[in-house]
Specification:
By secondary structure, the chain is mainly beta. Helix content is 0%, strand content 59%. It has no helices and eleven strands. The strands form two sheets. Strands 2, 4, 5, 6, 9, 10 and 11 form a seven-stranded mixed sheet that branches. Strands 1-3-8-7 form a four-stranded antiparallel sheet, with no helix packed on it.
């Protein structure tokens, strides 16, 4: 399974960005897609996840500002980020929790930089 993320960039505080991550491959079934981030000098942390059934989970720090969603095929996940703050600056990683021939596996995208600065 390959994850291709896009949509990062530089934005001013209060601005918005939309991240996308597309999963491709063969013979896999996605259980959960999500976004994590790693800020400079900090550990990687969960941002938001969405299950195949559409259930979502958010870090407290992004609730009410970020929205995670998926396409109908359940192979692409989006993260709409509004009211961005400087503390949202980080490398954002797409994550996929999948089943391949009934074996659970976890995959990571390459990361996309989000910088919030004036």
């Amino acid at each position: 399974v390959q994850l291709q993320a896009s949509g990062g960039g530089l934005v001013q505080p209060g601005g918005s960005l939309r991240l996308s991550c597309a999963a491709s491959g063969s013979r896999f079934e996605i259980n959960t897609l999500g976004w994590y981030r790693r800020a400079p000098g900090k550990q990687r942390e969960l941002v938001a996840t969405i299950t195949r059934g559409g259930y979502t989970n958010y870090a407290d720090s992004v609730k009410g500002r970020f929205t995670i969603s998926g396409d109908n095929a359940k192979t692409t996940v989006y993260l709409q980020m509004n009211s961005l703050k400087p503390e949202d600056t980080a490398v954002y990683y797409c994550n996929a929790d999948v089943m391949i021939l009934r074996i659970p596996r976890v995959y990571w995208g390459q990361g996309t930089q989000v910088t919030v600065s004036s």
